[in-house]
TrEMBL record:
Catalytic activity, EC: 4.2.1.96
Source organism superkingdom: Bacteria
EC supergroup of this enzyme: lyase
Protein name, entry field: Putative pterin-4-alpha-carbinolamine dehydratase
SUPFAM superfamilies: PCD-like
Keywords attached to this entry: Lyase
Catalytic activity: (4aS,6R)-4a-hydroxy-L-erythro-5,6,7,8-tetrahydrobiopterin = (6R)-L-erythro-6,7-dihydrobiopterin + H2O
Similarity field: Belongs to the pterin-4-alpha-carbinolamine dehydratase family.
InterPro entries membership: PCD_sf, Pterin_deHydtase
Length: 102
C-alpha cells in the first residue's frame, strides 16, 4: 500500500516527517539536500543510495559540483511525494552520516 502525502485531514504528515530530516527542504513535489563532502565520500554515498533506491524502486537525482553533492527526491511533475520518497531521504541521511564518520 502506498501512502500519499496529499491529504490535509488533521496533520500535514509530510511536514512532520521533514522536520525530522534536518537539512532537507521542500520544493513543491520534491525535497532537496545539499551535502559538503569530498569525491571519495560522494562515491561511497552514491553507491549506498543506489542500493536503497533500487530496493524502493525510486530514482533520486544526485549531482556533484565542486565540493557539494546535491540530491533531489521526488518527481517534480505534479505527482505528490510518497512515503517511500521520504523514507529514501531518511536512508540518505543515514548513509551520509556513515560515509562522513570515517
Amino acid at each position: 500500500m502506498r501512502a500519499l502525502f496529499t491529504s490535509r485531514s488533521k496533520h500535514d504528515y509530510l511536514s512532520d516527517a521533514l522536520t525530522l530530516l534536518h537539512g532537507w527542504t521542500r520544493d513543491g513535489e520534491q525535497i532537496r539536500r545539499t551535502l559538503v563532502m569530498d569525491d571519495s565520500q560522494h562515491a561511497a554515498l552514491t553507491e549506498r543510495v543506489k542500493v536503497v533506491a533500487d530496493a524502493l524502486r525510486l530514482r533520486p537525482d544526485i549531482s556533484r559540483r565542486d565540493t557539494e553533492t546535491r540530491i533531489r527526491v521526488g518527481h517534480g511533475d505534479g505527482e505528490p511525494l510518497t512515503e517511500g520518497e521520504v523514507l529514501l531521504a531518511a536512508r540518505i541521511e543515514d548513509a551520509y552520516r556513515a560515509v562522513t564518520a570515517d
